[in-house]
Write a structure and sequence with these properties.
The complex is a heterodimer.
Chain A (H helix, E strand, L loop, with lengths): L13 H24 L6 H7 L3 H16 L7 H13 L1 H4 L1 H24 L4 H19 L9 H7 L8 H19 L1 H11 L1 H6 L4 H27 L10 H11 L11 H21 L4 H26 L1
Helix pairs in contact in A: 1-14, 1-15, 3-9, 3-12, 3-13, 3-14, 4-7, 4-12, 4-13, 6-12, 8-12, 9-10, 9-14, 13-14, 14-15
Chain B lengths: L6 E12 L2 E12 L3 E6 L5 H8 L7 E6 L2 E2 L5 H6 L2 E4 L11 H8 L8 H16 L16 H12 L9 E5 L7 H16 L3 E5 L3 H7 L2 E6 L2 E7 L5 H9 L21 E5 L10 E4 L3 E6 L5 H11 L7 E3 L3 E4 L3 H5 L6 H6 L7 E2 L2 E2 L1 H15 L15 H13 L5 E5 L7 H16 L3 E5 L11 E6 L2 E7 L5 H9 L5
Parallel strand pairs in B: 3-8, 3-9, 6-7, 7-8, 13-19, 13-20, 15-18, 18-19
Antiparallel strand pairs in B: 1-2, 1-4, 4-5, 9-10, 11-12, 11-14, 16-17, 20-21
Helix pairs in contact in B: 3-4, 4-5, 12-13, 13-14
The chains are: A mainly alpha, B alpha/beta.
Amino acid sequence: MTVDAAQTSRPFNYARMLRTLLPALSLALVLLAIAWLNPRAISYLGFTLMLNLAIPIALVTIAQMFVITVNELDLSIGPFVGFVGCVTATWLTETPLLGLAVLLGAILVYAALGALIHLRNLPSIVVTLGMSFVWQGLAILILPTPGGKAPEWLMTMMGFKPPFVPFPIIAALLIGLVAHFGLMRTSYGTILRGAGGNGQAIARAGWSLLRAKMVMFGLAGLFGVFSGLALIGTTSSGDANIGNGYTLLSIAGVILGGGEFVGGRVSPIGAVIGALTLALAASSLLTFMHIPPDWQVAANGAILIIVLAARVLISRREA
Amino acid sequence: MADDRTPIVTLGGVEKHFGAVHALDGVDLSVAAGECVGLVGHNGAGKSTLMHILAGIGMPDAGSISIGGVEQGSYTVGLAQRLGIRCVFQELSLCPNLTVAENTHVTHASIRGIGWRGRAAALVVHKLDEVFPGHGIEARDVVADLPIGKRQMVEVARAFTVTQDPLKLVILDEPTSSLDAHTAGQLLAFVRRATGQGISCILISHLLGEILETANRIVVMRDGKVVASDRASAFDRDRLVTTMGGAEQHKKTVRDTKAKVRGSTPVRVSARPKLQADAAQLIAHRGEIIGLAGLAGHGQTRLLLDIFNASSRRIPGVEVTMPVALVAGDRQTDGIFPLWSIAQNIGIRSLKRLRRGPFVASDLETQFADGWRQKIGIRSPDLDNNILSLSGGNQQKTLFARALGSDASIILMDDPMRGVDIGTKLEVYDLIRAEAQTGRTFLWYTTETEELGHCDHIYVFRNGCIVADLDRSELTEQKVIQSSFAEGAA
């Protein structure tokens, strides 16, 4: 008797479905364009090469997504990835224990930033903008000129060639599923999302908002570290400026993947797809379109505007 | 099994101050097991503040709280939960981005581990079936997708679900405000069943009929105090209204104006609220002071903003013939420019007159502001001081000076006297009357029934509509309260 009462038909929300499918649709569109421009790219080797840098971008997008879930924004994640890269290419190779300690410490700093932002009621944009210079400065101190060397084990891991399916696709799937399970399916993940949706209600039910913010920023730090490791494992050497473009890419990836800046509405799977789309559109597609490197950065920006505008238009129809 | 004499909750001499405002002034309240207490009172009587304290959200400045006969030293939300006190707040406390089942986990931390979602869903849906049969809500619905009435239903049902903590007392703050008559009836019937099983309820409602039907005992609050507490059968509508309104309601501000005949001066504003189904509309003539009354948030501010917007673009149903100025009620967010000086804050609405070429002439601005300082009595040594150097009352005077100094002949006032001391109020009342004599029209939304005595004509609002249209000669506080609270069958 309990379920039957609820079996009323309700109008199907097409705009909602469109929004959910938008990340997948835009990825399909980019893939189609690539297939049309260069059919040979759609192959095991092609994907392995094109999605080379997609793993660190997917990881950094998930990191940003954690912060956006609790209605904050992290402008320091790009330089942070650069910092992690420099630590990885130097200390983690030469003195692994020191390297590990520094990376763990960096994650704790992230959690502390979450606490600071919550307790002092500071705008996260200001705090993380400041921190971006701190991470950048530290990175330059550690590695003044590009160089260093990635640890062997890391390069082996990133160079893994599984049969049939290219490694980046498996990795992206894994990242998306882990984040989805943790944030969308577990009971504490629900509380974390609720903290973004109606923080007051969560606090009134007796949960700690401070803890929620610290967990989310700590997770952002953790995934930022993963992203830096993956990046250095792929490029094999470090550079203090290597992650600078990642801040905006990560924000764009989250939004493209169906997330909202406020209200705790995010989608980990969508965010990973958004990251893959951006990774493909940002380099491979433009190269296949024979756009000269000088113009690629600007073209990149144009693609971002178009894709995000489409996303906003669809959300508006839904409302 | 519960003895009717055991008090679940006892509050003794609870006080709460916000600055100089005494929101609660020594309140005693006790609720017995299985009792439904109806709590009524006008806006700002302190009901919500009291309930926040009972739910552990606000700390009282003085007084004691005992739950189940044990005095609570440091009382918090978490402790209230564990002791079995739940609250359905007026402002919805669901997370809109979560599903119904996920929201259930928010208040039931013990639902966790594998399969938690299914257990939370079963718990809340079962309770929804019990309280609102035929509700049509699914556990996997995202709250943001539900209409407001259904959200309210989820919230009520969730408050009555039980896992590991006991359920002793549920506070329902305006639970029926967004429910239709049918579901409201279901809820009230459920409340009667629940109290029959020994669960206590505190029911806050502006619908007096609900309170009289459902509650065993009624507590009336006024100005932060409990003014009456008796069996529900000892009350009827009229006695409730009189008790809420206070005894001094017949003392009216004596006014020297002769009873003006309405319509002898040209119409300045005519406006129909968007939700108004019948032909009633608000009319304001030249030189009139029009009062907008009713409970807070029943469409008065909305209509004032529509009138304000109608002066610059077309708004259907609203006609405005002259320039308009608005005095904001929430001055911190809508009124003052906190980084500017007093003179700049006064002059902003009249910049056209203070210009030389494309620039604002600071001497003209100072001169203009100084004229108004004297006229309205802003107490400040220097108008170049920052606006925040003024007291709240003087900040409000600055906003009046901004509006009255402008070219507007229609002045809209959005409950401008909130938190203003009585001395300033009296000065401003005189000023308004004097300005109305010179032909300005005032539209005055106020939550203080006393202030309506200054108006020539009063419109009472309920649920976004005009429900009563009173001339000053017909005005009594009782009538205003009566129509603010009127129900369909009143």
